[in-house]
Amino acid sequence: MRVLHTLRVLPEGGRISRFAMRAGMATWLTGALAFCGGECAAADAGAYPSKPVKIIIANAAGGASDVLVRFMTPRLSEYLGQPVVIENRPGAGANIGAEIAARSPPDGYTLFLVSAPHAIAPGLYKKLSYDLLKDFSPVAMAAEEQFCLVVHPSLPATNVKTFVSFVKSHASQVAYGSTGNGAANHLAMELLQTTAGIRLNHVPYRGSGAALTDAINGRVPVLFVNLSPVSGHLQAGKMRALAVTSLKRSPLLPQVPTIAESGYRDYDLVNWFGYLAPAATPDDIVRKLSAALTRVAESAEFKNRIGHHGAEPRIATPEEMRAFLVSEIAKWGKIVRATGARVE
Fold first, then answer.
1. Could you tell me if 130 and 93 are in contact, meaning their C-beta atoms sit under 8 angstroms apart?
2. Please, are residues 60 and 66 in contact by the beta-carbon 8 Å criterion?
């Protein structure tokens, strides 16, 4: 905006009255402020971020997803130049946090940590209050981790083959634990049962801590579990690892084969983590967030920290992440239908 001034030429020796001077100054200030207001508003709109960024986690504090985000937030805050705060909103199979995030303003100040359970949900629940693909904009992937099939030492199984033989010879007498109906580790076991033609008794728990405790005590001797909480117990001989669930071995347990190597070549499941923003978040903001998150995920510091927990970085552009989400929803949906799992 330009401010134009009209100057009145006075006769030689003429004077401008004090009133006229004040009026002219007021006009100039009004124009200047109008100019600054327009320019400053434009600057504010482009100066993202100008306040703290919030990350919603649909799980309780202390879980694998919570730990992962807390590994990332210090560097992410540094790269964005703003504080990054975490809001844990657990409940309803990780769907409460997802709904809250989906309804948040699409201004780039709310991110949602998405993981495998959210790709499972569309096939598992008859009705959801959000759509993972329509209500969110993919931002960046962060990491992935395998599950590990572990058994109590009292179970006479040292690998998948002997485990399957033992279960078949003890029809429906062996119990396994999970973190709840429809959880990723529940479906991991359901898939193995369907693939191997075996049947175990399912004991659902409300969280991984209680399930692991009972597995260590031998009450429920079989469990699919993330590597990080069980690695110490494996080293101490309190649990025995039979196989991991991805197509490649874990760097944390290189001596433990995959289920695919153990005779079930198409078996491939991992838990993964990424970030979404509410749909309609401006693309330039999504790109800025994606660049910052990817920069953290690619750092040697982050790789080292999550490596001790059995996880690895996973990098993807927003477009690649959308394609991945589509494939994961289809993949888990097929497993849900094959196993007959259902949560009302």
1. no
2. yes
Residues 6 or more apart whose Cβ sits within 8 Å of residue 138 = 274, 276, 318, 319, 321, 322, 325
186: left (phi over 0), alpha (psi -120 to 50) or beta: alpha
Instruction: Please work out, in degrees rounded to the nearest 5, the angle formed at the alpha carbon of residue 264 by the alpha carbons of 263 and 266.
Output: 140
CA dihedral 41, 43, 44, 47 (to 10 degrees): 160
Domains of the chain from N-terminus onward: 53-145+273-339 (3.40.190.150), 146-244 (3.40.190.10)
pLDDT, tens digit (0-9, with 9 covering 90-100), for 73-125: 999 999 999 999 999 998 887 899 999 999 999 999 999 999 999 999 999 99
What single letter denotes the amino acid at residue 227? L
Is the pTM for the entire model greater than 0.70? yes
What gap in Å lies between CA 188 and CA 259, rounded to an integer?
Answer: 11
Express each pLDDT in 33-72 by its tens digit: 444 444 443 334 468 999 999 999 998 887 778 889 999 9
Residue 265: half-sphere exposure toward Cβ, Cα within 13 Å: 0
